[in-house]
């Protein structure tokens, strides 16, 4: 299917690895012009090389309140417009609620929620002009609480609510805003857990992955490319009637409505 994304401009945060990298590569294959952002310049350069031409790098810590605005300004300077913002930055700390610190909570909200707020706000006039869209990469923890994921669940729930709020505003301004909730996706972090499980149980990696997935009540873990394909769909006019839509891409992990 031709998604008609050629020469449209996408800004992707958290693009240096995992889901963010897959999103950048998928949108590059669709012919989009990319501005990719994360803290590591070296990793971003690797992603840029894997995507080929028409990719520029913006290395910054998006927890800094000035960085999101600078990122959007940089994108407009480079390409003159913005058609898509993918808010993907942010990992939150797991742990016992009684042991998590004030700094842990501040850090979780600063990178994932506040950077999305600031990027979206800075990009909004440009997206309104281009009739573009925002895709927030959130997570199923925002829909189902978990004792060891109190920070991440709270941040994700807030970002899901922000998605609905911006979609409501977007109906007025012509900006589409949607979200994706990834489930258990085989990024480096999950692969490390699988590797440890395999070592602890003295089994192969594939057997460990199958057993872990089965214990979670799903058939398999997801691939970053599956999230990336959904982003491309939401960025295109094929999904033109999606507004405030929240996609749970989790293999059936989430059983609630």
Indicate the topology.
Layout: E1 9-13, H1 18-29, E2 33-38, H2 41-51, E3 55-59, H3 67-79, E4 84-87, H4 102-130, E5 133-137, H5 150-173, E6 176-182, H6 188-201, H7 205-215, H8 224-235, E7 246-249
Give your account of this protein's structure:
With 257 residues, this protein is of the alpha/beta class. The chain has helices at 18-29, 41-51, 67-79, 102-130, 150-173, 188-201, 205-215, 224-235; strands at residues 9-13, 33-38, 55-59, 84-87, 133-137, 176-182, 246-249. The protein has a seven-stranded parallel sheet with strand order 3-2-1-4-5-6-7, sandwiched between helices. It is globular, with a radius of gyration of 18 Å. 44% of the residues are buried.
CATH H-level name of the largest domain... which superfamily? NAD(P)-binding Rossmann-like Domain
CATH class assignment of the largest domain: Alpha Beta
> How many helices in DSSP terms?
8
Strand content: 5-15%
The average pLDDT score comes to: 96
Order of SSEs, N→C? EHEHEHEHEHEHHHE
General form: globular
Would you count the extended β strands for me? 7
Structural class given helices, strands, pairing? alpha/beta
The amount of helix comes to 40-55%
Q: How many separate domains?
A: 2
Strand numbers in spatial order across the main sheet: 3-2-1-4-5-6-7
CATH topology description of the largest domain? Rossmann fold
Question: Which CATH architecture of the largest domain would you pick?
Answer: 3-Layer(aba) Sandwich
| Measured distance between first and last alpha carbons | 30 Å
How is the biggest beta sheet arranged?
7 strands, parallel
Rg of Cα set? 18 Å
Uncertain segments: none
